[in-house]
């Protein structure tokens, strides 16, 4: 009895900061309301579900803003396992606002298609809740739970067109490869726990010593974890799911996967390498360097060969992932803070630009009913506004000033130059060459829009739903403002200070 009393420490209830958890609580309430309204409302009133989803996301932004202006900049719960700091607030705002734009992209598409609408909005909110949780997770268990919380609904959303064989193929491939990647990552996490005897990322960071007895095990664990997240961000050679999944999934879901889901993967990777693996940089830095160079190059080469617009975007998204990995490849050295800032800036700009391009695709496909690049021929002649907007978004992705994409690439290259190592200079050269290559396929689309004739001679005006118009307006303004006034997005990057990183 005495022994049991000694071993079993008295349990005390954890202190919960409800203000810090307010974004998650609002999303949880929102998805519950969406599910109940879907259950009890008639088919005629199902349009309410998209409105409720949008208001849930905007409602979750409010506590993010109140937390940002509050004096207490860091809130830690559950013994440091769940942290709300400036980094998490910035990326939470990114996820929520990107999610709201995806709701605008989805509204007319879902209403006009043969979909189960209530389940769609429920799964979308569930996945976004997982992303918001991921931003604050500072523990192996919470990271894995958040990752699965965002991934499992995404698997189902990819296969949402049940009668479409391509959509079914997209969902199956995404699910099977995703489960395999999760298993590899979980094995790496189990090795980390075995060595550190703790799941806290900060404790793992203190325990890693590659010169010690467990050096080989720790190195293997780091590689397994990075490989798991390399799949999530579709880094080469773990990208094979992306082209088929992007092409087969509903277009709004493709936008969701290429922006929000990819951003969540990068956020988790940043948190892990900078908080849990600061002393393992000799392992993960060369690995990420190779992933970055390979991802940019292979993504661009395959994008040049595509005739289907969505598959081209898929490989473009792979290539953009390589550019986001560039600053991470030097994050363990003198350029650590610059690298973190560069990743955040690039993700913000990429989200605005890529979502805008998907909005144009959705608007044009309502008329052309085709995913081929040739179907965009002569777009400017009968839809000049859409032609100009598509050009803006493509030029931004190519990194052409004064559009938003240039500041993202500038921040990434600046991080490499700050590191000032030979390997950083080599990666910068590879990135510069790939930036030129990327303009090849972006320029090809611009040529179709401005110089080619309309393939079928049909110059009927495109009717764009109001929700798509709002999405186009938001993304276009953001792309232009970020490029013309780069200090705004750079300020967000500077705010995103990660607690526990850089040996702190």
Description of the structure:
This protein is mainly alpha-helical and 504 residues long. It has one domain. Helix content is 74%, strand content 1%. The chain has 20 helices and 2 strands. The chain has helices at 2-7, 22-40, 47-69, 86-112, 117-136, 140-158, 165-196, 201-207, 215-232, 241-248, 251-276, 281-304, 309-328, 336-368, 379-382, 384-397, 405-419, 422-451, 466-484, 486-495; strands spanning 75-77, 82-84. It has a two-stranded antiparallel sheet. A hairpin with a 4-residue loop joins strand 1 (75-77) and strand 2 (82-84). Helix 4 runs antiparallel to helix 11 (251-276) and helix 6 packs antiparallel against helix 7. The longest helix has 33 residues, at 336-368. The mean pLDDT is 86.
Cα distance spanning the termini: 43 Å
Number of E strands: 2
Assembly state of the chains shown:
single chain
Number of domains: 1
Number of separate helices = 20
**Basic shape:** globular
In terms of per-residue confidence, which ranges show pLDDT below 50 for 5 or more consecutive residues?
none
Proportion of residues in helical segments: over 70%
* Strand line-up across the major sheet: 1-2
Q: What is the H-and-E element order? A: HHHEEHHHHHHHHHHHHHHHHH
Measured on Cα atoms, how large is the radius of gyration? Answer: 22 Å
Structural class: mainly alpha
Q: What is the averaged pLDDT score? A: 86
Q: Roughly what fraction of the amino acids lie in strands?
A: under 5%
Biggest sheet record: 2 strands, antiparallel
């Amino acid at each position: 009895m005495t022994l049991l009393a000694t071993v079993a420490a008295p349990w005390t209830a954890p202190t919960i900061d409800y203000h810090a958890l307010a974004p998650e609580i609002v999303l949880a309430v929102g998805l519950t309301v969406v599910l109940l309204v879907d259950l009890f409302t008639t088919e005629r009133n199902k349009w309410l579900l998209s409105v409720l989803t949008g208001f849930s996301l905007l409602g979750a932004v409010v506590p993010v803003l109140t937390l940002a202006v509050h004096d207490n900049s860091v809130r830690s719960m559950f013994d440091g396992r769940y942290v709300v700091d400036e980094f998490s607030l910035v990326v939470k705002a990114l996820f929520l606002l990107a999610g709201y734009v995806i709701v605008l992209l989805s509204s007319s598409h879902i209403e006009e298609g043969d979909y189960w609408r209530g389940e769609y909005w429920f799964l979308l909110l569930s996945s976004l809740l997982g992303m918001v949780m991921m931003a604050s997770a500072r523990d192996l268990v919470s990271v894995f739970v958040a990752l699965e919380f965002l991934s499992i609904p995404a698997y189902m959303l990819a296969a949402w067109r049940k009668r479409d064989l391509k959509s079914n193929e997209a969902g199956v491939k995404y699910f099977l490869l995703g489960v395999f990647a999760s298993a590899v990552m979980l094995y790496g996490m189990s090795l980390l726990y075995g060595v550190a005897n703790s799941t806290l990322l900060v404790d793992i960071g203190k325990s890693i010593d590659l010169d010690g007895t467990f050096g080989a095990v720790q190195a293997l664990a780091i590689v397994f974890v990075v490989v798991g997240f390399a799949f999530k961000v579709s880094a080469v050679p773990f990208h094979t799911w992306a082209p088929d999944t992007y092409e087969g999934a509903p277009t709004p879901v493709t936008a969701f996967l290429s922006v929000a889901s990819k951003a969540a993967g990068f956020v988790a990777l940043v948190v892990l390498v900078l908080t849990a693996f600061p002393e393992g940089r000799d392992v993960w830095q060369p690995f990420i360097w190779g992933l970055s160079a390979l991802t940019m190059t292979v993504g661009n080469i395959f994008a040049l060969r595509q005739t289907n617009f969505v598959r081209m975007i898929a490989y473009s998204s792979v290539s953009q992932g390589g550019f986001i990995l560039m600053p991470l490849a030097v994050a363990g050295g003198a350029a650590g803070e610059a690298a973190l800032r560069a990743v955040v800036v690039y993700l913000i700009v990429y989200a605005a630009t890529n979502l805008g391009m998907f909005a144009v695709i959705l608007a044009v496909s309502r008329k052309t009913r085709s995913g081929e690049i040739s179907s965009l021929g002569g777009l400017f002649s009968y839809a000049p506004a859409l032609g100009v907007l598509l050009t803006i978004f493509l030029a931004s992705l190519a990194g052409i000033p004064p559009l938003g994409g240039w500041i993202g690439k500038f921040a990434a290259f600046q991080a490499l130059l700050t590191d000032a190592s030979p390997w950083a200079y080599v990666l910068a050269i590879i990135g510069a060459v790939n930036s030129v290559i990327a303009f090849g396929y972006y320029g090809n689309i611009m040529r179709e829009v401005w110089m080619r004739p309309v393939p079928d001679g049909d110059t009927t005006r495109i009717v764009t739903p109001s929700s798509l118009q709002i999405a186009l307006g938001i993304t276009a303004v953001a792309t232009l403002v970020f490029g013309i006034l780069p200090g705004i997005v750079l300020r967000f990057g500077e705010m995103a200070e990660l607690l526990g990183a850089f040996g702190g």
